[in-house]
Amino acid sequence: MKTAEKQTSFSTPPLQVKKTGRKGHGVFASAPIAAGSLVVHLSGFVLPTHKLRADYMALQIDSDMWLCSRGGRLDDMINHSCRPNTGFTGGGLKLFALLDIAAGEEITFDYSTSLTDEAWSLNCLCGEKACRKTILPFQHNGPAYMQKHLSLALDYIRKLYATSHRSTHARQA
Ligand SMILES: [Zn+2]
Fold first, then answer.
1. Is residue 35 in a domain?
2. CA of 5 to the centre of ligand 1 (A)
3. Strand 134-135 to strand 65-69: parallel, antiparallel, or no bridges (unpaired)?
4. pLDDT tens figures, 119-151
């Protein structure tokens, strides 16, 4: 008899793509996901900014580097939320559950936690009470936001902004 496999927090949970109405497609949990679990490991090919194409899906992963795909894959369809239920808590290209996620709940992350490109902004349709209305590069959301969200951001953003308050002090000295 086979022993039932114990679910570990590092196995990707079952997810499914569904239509969400005004946001187009979205990714939904098809089973409950415990807080702290790995939800999605993002993947694709890496290009510098000048090689981006309008028909590629692109997620910024460094000052001049983007994780790209030709679209249509599950990890391309994860929508932004100003009150997300996943984040880059490890600093790498993995989204972890920030809280317990129920079956049927949409998976979201905060696009600002991957972005610093000055040219980038997008109207937000997340519908949360605390919606920022426009999704902006990380550094344009204000110091309170930056401090609160650094632990959800990609490593390169942590490196860019973790020391920013220190350099401000240095300039004042
Ligand atoms: Zn929003």
1. yes
2. 38
3. unpaired
4. 999 999 999 999 999 999 999 999 999 999 999
